[in-house]
Each structure stands twice: as structure tokens, then as C-alpha cells.
Specification:
139 residues
Length: 139
């Protein structure tokens, strides 16, 4: 409910295999980078030889391994961005976390996984940066 334009967020600055299905390896939720902004984390990931996850990769990872998403140990997927009509990036970046069941989420969604957004320049102590060491068509 907080991100009605989620389908408009697309890979940005990330090279994906040219196939509908591919393998993402060395996936990490990036907790060591908590309390950095996406703007700060992106070059740090590159220095480590890592590529930021796109939103669909983060969702698929959680669907396959639900235990990856823990309260206060969630992650952003900064490989996805929304571009405005003039080509500049939107100030939001997608993130996946566990709902507190407040606000528009409603009490019935407390403890449920949530796709939301954070500001590109903001830091969060409880959000890491999902990343991968590689993407390929085969393992």
C-alpha cells in the first residue's frame, strides 16, 4: 500500500542475464553496511566486487529462504530504481522488511514481510544492502 508504483522500479546500473530465469550466487543481505545510505553503500559494494540486488531478486530470495528476513536485519534492493520522465532517478529505493503492523499496513499485517521504500540519501541502522557476487544462466 505504500508503494503503488512498485512495478515501475527497474534494474538500474545492474547488468542482468538476457533470460527470464538465471542463478544469483553469493547472496548476502549486507548487514555489515547497516547505517549507511544507499548512496554510500553502492560504491562500497562495488569495491567488494559485489552487485546490488534488484527488487525481484530480493523477493525471490526470501520466497526460497524465508529465514533470511529477520526483524531488525532486513535489506534494501538498491539495484532497482525508478526513473522520472526527465531521466533523473526517483529519490526512493525499494527495501524488504518485516512490518510493524502500524499505519497503512494495519495490525493484521504485523510480522508480515513487506516491500516498501526508503530515501536514497537516508541511513537506517536496521537495513543492510542485499547484494550478489554474480548472476549466470547456469550454476
Amino acid at each position: 500500500v505504500d508503494m503503488t508504483d512498485v512495478d515501475r522500479f527497474a534494474p538500474d546500473g545492474v547488468e542482468l542475464p538476457d533470460a527470464p530465469l538465471y542463478l544469483v550466487t553469493g547472496v548476502d543481505r549486507g548487514g555489515r553496511m547497516a547505517n549507511r545510505s544507499p548512496q554510500e553503500a553502492l560504491p562500497a559494494l562495488a569495491r567488494e566486487g559485489r552487485s546490488p540486488l534488484v527488487l525481484t531478486e530480493g523477493i525471490h530470495w526470501i520466497l526460497q529462504r524465508p529465514e533470511v528476513l529477520e526483524r531488525d536485519r532486513c535489506f534494501m534492493t538498491i539495484g532497482s530504481r525508478l526513473r522520472k520522465p526527465n531521466g533523473t532517478p526517483d529519490a526512493r529505493t525499494p527495501a524488504i522488511w518485516i512490518s510493524n503492523g502500524t499505519g497503512r499496513d494495519g495490525r493484521e499485517r504485523r510480522e508480515a514481510p513487506k516491500v516498501g521504500w526508503c530515501w536514497w540519501g537516508n541511513r537506517h541502522t536496521w537495513l543492510g544492502f542485499g547484494s550478489t557476487t554474480g548472476r549466470s544462466l547456469t550454476g
